[in-house]
């Protein structure tokens, strides 16, 4: 189905359909950037995305003080992971570093399970994103790791004591009097 210009009702409708519907394009609309994206008239044609100030924002991502001062810190009780002290990460590198940090938590769960005769049933990582209020850039704001470890009950001293108490309590409870 081809959608064309509906005269009178939506006078600029064909500007939006030209980018979607190739059959509605003309030679002029393919070469003129204002007809392909009429909302981009104020932007520089060859400007990098980090140098352009978005509408309604105080600064461009390149000049953003909030992004330049953003720090990441781990809030867990594990001592052998990165970011125990607040550290700055550039927005471009934050995704890789946060994923690597959350991977350290997963690795620690497997080590802990192996040391105590346990089994990792589930290890999941969620990476969170946010939008900078100053420049509008989407950035990695942190991550959360959830692990579930099942430990064998044989090595647990409480389980051993409970089994001994049960043995004393149930001794002689089932006696067969038939003779």
Task: Describe the overall structure.
With 179 residues, the chain is α+β, with helices and mostly antiparallel strands. It is built from 6 helices and 4 strands, in the order H-H-H-H-E-E-H-E-E-H. The protein has helices at residues 13-20, 27-31, 33-36, 65-69, 94-115, 157-170, and strands at residues 71-72, 87-88, 118-131, 138-151. It has a two-stranded antiparallel sheet. Strands 3-4 form a two-stranded antiparallel sheet. Residues 1-25 and 36-43 have low confidence and may be disordered.
How are strands sequenced across the largest beta sheet?
1-2
Q: Largest sheet, described in full?
A: 2 strands, antiparallel
From N to C, what is the helix and strand string?
HHHHEEHEEH
Distance between the termini: 91 Å
The beta-strand count equals 4
The overall pLDDT average reads 75
> Helix segment count?
6
Q: Hey, roughly how much beta strand do the residues contain?
A: 15-25%
Report the helical percentage.
25-40%
How would the global form be characterised?
rod-shaped
Instruction: Classify the secondary structure makeup into a structural class.
Output: alpha+beta
